[in-house]
Design brief:
InterPro entries: FMN-bd, PplA-like. The protein is an alpha+beta fold. It has 8 helices and 12 strands. The chain folds into 2 domains: 7-52 and 184-306, Sufe protein. Chain: A (Alpha-Beta Complex); 62-179, Sufe protein. Chain: A, CATH 3.90.1010.20. The chain has helices spanning 15-19, 28-45, 108-118, 122-134, 152-171, 233-243, 247-261, 274-293, and strands at residues 7-8, 11-12, 53-55, 62-68, 76-83, 89-97, 177-179, 188-194, 202-210, 213-222, 299-301, 305-306. It has a 4-stranded mixed β-sheet with strand order 6-5-4-7. The protein has a 4-stranded mixed β-sheet with strand order 10-9-8-11. Strand 4 (62-68) and strand 5 (76-83) form a beta hairpin. It is globular, with a radius of gyration of 19 Å. It starts with 6 loop residues before the first strand and ends with a strand.
Length: 308
């Protein structure tokens, strides 16, 4: 979610604004979640009011596709979304198929065994994830998609790919996104940056890769002057009081966790900054995909920001 800047000139923003927030993310998905929740609370009091998109492009009508290039344990992911003229996802088709084109959903033995061990299976979690993207996340708000218990890794992969498809839909780019999954990351520095500010901040992120390891992670939230949210003393003090954490604490923790594991799905969520942590993982996965392709072009995120 988004926090408002804690201080404006010499006046401190009311602490109640912070109390509504669970973290300090300035991502597109987080801003959508924050705005949606606040608009829904106001709509109950003022009939029905839909949150207005104030920054970021709507998705363009069309069908957008993504495909993994390599098989893992005999399967690879294929994913497509269909967007209508109103900029909403009307169909989500995420699937995992083998070399014969058979879905993992139809692998009876696999589903039985996974259900026994994890409490869920592809037959359960794939439709659930697709339904979530067609429902609360239909406007592109990927942060509303919950991780399915027992299928954490698959859920995070779904979120990552859904986010990339939403970005393609914003541009109207129908070229199939090719994911070189399982490939080694190529040496280099890979960058990502949000275009739009929410409550005065936007996310920037870069990773440095050497010998298939992430040796440096630099996730930050900066204002129009390039100043980091970490350096906003008043903001950090107020957030610490409410959430028991703040950018000064959670940003270094997230960066350190990614360097330690070199695997975004193993990054620990920082208590009190859940949404910022989830956004970090989404963007880290996208940077990992870029590194697998050796694509050092800065990824520009046209993050959606909604009026409150």
């Amino acid at each position: 979610m988004k926090f408002k800047s804690v201080i404006t000139g010499a006046s401190v923003v009311a602490i109640s604004a912070l109390a509504l927030a669970g973290c300090g993310s300035s991502s597109s998905s987080s801003s959508s979640s924050s705005s949606s929740k606040k608009s829904s609370s106001s709509s109950s009091a003022k009939t029905t009011k839909v949150a207005k998109l104030t920054a970021g492009s709507k998705m363009k009508a069309g069908t957008y596709k993504l495909a993994e290039q390599n098989y893992s344990h005999g399967y690879k992911a294929e994913f497509s979304i269909t967007v209508n003229s109103k900029g909403k996802i009307t169909k989500s088709d995420y699937n995992q198929v083998n070399k014969k084109g058979k879905s993992k959903v139809d692998d009876t033995a696999y589903n039985k065994q996974m259900k026994k061990v994890s409490g869920t299976n592809p037959k359960t979690y794939q439709p659930k994830l697709n339904k979530a993207l067609e429902g609360a996340a239909a406007t592109g708000n990927v942060s509303t998609i919950d991780v399915v218990s027992g299928a954490t890794e698959s859920s995070k992969t779904f979120q990552n790919y859904a986010q990339q498809l939403v970005q393609a839909a914003q541009k109207g780019d129908t070229a199939t996104i090719k994911i070189n999954n399982g490939a080694k990351m190529k040496d280099g520095t890979y960058k990502l940056a949000e275009k739009n500010y929410s409550h005065g901040y936007r996310d920037t992120f870069s990773i440095t890769v050497k010998n298939n390891k992430i040796t440096k992670s630099a996730f930050d939230q900066v204002n129009k002057k390039g100043k980091s949210k970490v350096d906003d003393a008043a903001y950090n003090k107020q957030m610490k009081k409410i959430s028991k954490t703040n950018p000064k604490t959670y940003q270094p923790a997230l960066n350190k966790s990614l360097v330690k594991s070199s695997d975004p799905t193993k990054v620990d969520v920082v208590t009190g900054a859940t949404e910022s942590s989830n956004t970090f993982v989404l963007y880290a996965e996208q940077l990992q995909n870029a590194a697998q392709n050796g694509d050092t072009k800065t990824i520009s995120i046209d993050n959606m920001v909604f009026a409150e």
